[in-house]
Amino acid sequence: MIYPTRRAVAVMAAGAPVALVAALAAPHLWVIGAAWVLATAGLVLADVWLAPSPRGLRLSLTAPGALGMGAPGEAVVEAAFRGPRSPKLQVALGADARLGVEPARQTLRLGAEGDGRARMRLIPRRRGQAVFERLWARWRGPLGLAWVQRTDTLDQRTAITPDVQGVKDEALRMFTRDAPFGMKAQIDTGEGSDFNALKEFQTGMDLRSIDWKQSARHAKLIGREYRTERNHHVVLAIDSGRLMCSPLGGAPRVDRAINAALLLAFVSLKLGDRVRLFAFDAKPRISSGAAAGAQAFPLLQRLAASIDYTAEETNFTLGLNTLSGQLDRRALVVVFTDFADPTSAELMIENVARLLRTHLVMFVAFRDEELERIVDAAPETPEDVSRAVIAASLLKQRELVVSRLQRLGAWIVEAPAGRLGVELVNSYLAAKRRDLL
């Protein structure tokens, strides 16, 4: 693309007063204006001719494969001329609405070899797969009268994930011996059901671990040491339908579910279990294989980032039956979903009950603190009373659904959004200690 610079426009505009004065003084001199315009246009074309060719420019973009929400990143644009070159050029990077790019345009000065690089700040705005759509570069000719612009169409993607660094920090805090919630999140020995070794009984060990036959043989108390079982299957089933995309505490429910799911995935992989990610709304969207080892966490992170927001109603029958058909052994199925009333939850309960015949199901429920605040607030107007009555009715209906799930045998993990991940991990560890997986 070629277009005039401000200097060219100013030069052409400067000829207008001269042509006007000449035409007023001698009408036959009107051709001066036309000659000025033609001369300026000729200079612009000459500037284009002398400018470096767009074909001689090589552009490349280096961007991170994944970014976490709230954690800006950096993209590097590299430019290099082959043959004649311009001393500087301007570059701009275009991305979709999920990703902001700052600055919008940056001037790049080329070195002696005709190459240079520009660094641009990437600001994640919305979770999902962000697409870099276009890369622009433009430079002026030696006369400064014309811009020569090149536009490259891109299809480079960056996964915008939840706050993964926050997930890892939370997991590492839980893995320490002085965890703030009073529970050791990783204990390889002493917390499982697989026999590991015999050791001399020490204060603090469970009395039930004493091996009386070995104690009699050695004339001292000998205890059995157990280790945590490994290689269990943990399935993270995330509902991404309309209700899960509604906000809770300033963030969509599905984002909070993904944060909690990634925290559980991180801990499960560290403890040697296999983790599978499954997402569904009106139909199944994502179904990964069972991943093992800490090195599999980035894969789960990228898959979680691809769970998009949707306005479709959730089809529990299709989603959970598809998941059930993919599981060939007993697993811990963690269901992240939400419901509006007992009627809409009926199909969900029916399909969760079908899963419970073979698998251990943890149902993750968000405590709606906004409704609780409305119920607890002192009413000041009749409208406040109406709101409190409606909120209390919604909470009562929610409790009925949760109670039905508990009677069916599902584990209920209900917590405020900020503590959901921690409570979920604690429930997972409790299930492992009780050998329910």
If you had to describe this structure to a student in words, what would you say it looks like?
This protein is of the alpha/beta class. The chain folds into three domains: 1-161, Immunoglobulin-like; 164-169 and 230-433, 3-Layer(aba) Sandwich (Rossmann fold), CATH 3.40.50; 189-227, no CATH class. It is 37% helix and 30% strand. It is built from eleven helices and 20 strands. The strands form five sheets. Strands 1, 3, 5, 7, 9 and 10 form a six-stranded mixed beta sheet that branches. The chain has a six-stranded mixed beta sheet with strand order 17-16-13-18-19-20, sandwiched between helices. A four-stranded antiparallel beta sheet has the order 2-4-8-6, with no helix packed on it. Strand 18 (332-336), helix 8 and strand 19 (360-366) form a beta-alpha-beta unit. Helix 1 packs antiparallel against helix 2 (31-50), helix 5 (253-270) runs antiparallel to helix 6 and helix 9 packs across helix 10 (382-408). The longest helix is centred in the last third of the chain and has 27 residues, at 382-408. The two termini are 63 Å apart.
Shape descriptor: elongated
Based on the structure given, which CATH architecture of the largest domain is correct?
Answer: 3-Layer(aba) Sandwich
CATH superfamily of the largest domain: von Willebrand factor, type A domain
Average pLDDT over all residues: 83
Broad CATH class of the largest domain: Alpha Beta
Alpha-beta content class: alpha/beta
Strand content: 25-35%
Q: Give the tally of structural domains.
A: 3
Low-pLDDT runs of 5+ residues are 177-192
How many beta strands in the DSSP annotation?
20
